[in-house]
């Protein structure tokens, strides 16, 4: 489908204005699209995963450490297989109230989108 065909269908998640903006600018901001409860759960899960990397000195298939990574200042470029490491990530994809977020989650999990 091209942009005109997509825009000719009724909007479901994004407004028509947001969809047009996306096609013109390449991004769209959807403020407060993720509820605070989900943000808290996701941030807690992520903090736990980051904490496990403090003792790591080199990257693995799962954890891609930044060159400046230290135990005192853990720095990661990517964590793969999030949904295997903590079920909250899969719960978010499965139970998200917005149909766009599972697609974004999957795209990020498979490396098709950046953080």
Keyword list:
115 residues, mainly alpha, two-stranded antiparallel ribbon, elongated, Phytanoyl-CoA dioxygenase
Blueprint of the fold:
Blueprint (H helix, E strand, L loop, with lengths): L2 H6 L7 H10 L10 H17 L10 E3 L10 E4 L2 H4 L1 H9 L4 H10 L6
Antiparallel strand pairs: 1-2
Helix pairs in contact: 5-6
Question: What does this entry look like structurally?
Answer:
5% of the residues are buried. It contains six helices and two strands, in the order αααββααα. It is elongated, with a radius of gyration of 17 Å. It has a two-stranded antiparallel ribbon with strand order 1-2. The mean pLDDT is 84. With 115 residues, the protein is mainly α. Helices cover 49% and strands 6% of the residues.
Quickly describe the structure.
This is Phytanoyl-CoA dioxygenase. The protein is built from six helices and two strands; from the N terminus they run H-H-H-E-E-H-H-H.
**Biggest sheet architecture:** 2 strands, antiparallel
The helix/strand order is HHHEEHHH
Stretches where pLDDT falls below 50 for ≥5 residues?
Answer: none
Biggest sheet strand order reads 1-2
What percent of residues adopt helix (DSSP H or I)? 40-55%
Structural class, judged by helices and strands? mainly alpha
What is the radius of gyration?
A: 17 Å
Q: Count structural domains.
A: 2
Distance between the termini: 26 Å
What is the average per-residue confidence, as pLDDT, rounded to a whole number? 84
What is the overall number of helices? Answer: 6
Q: How many individual β-strands? A: 2
- What portion of the residues fall into strands of 2 or more residues? 5-15%
Shape: elongated
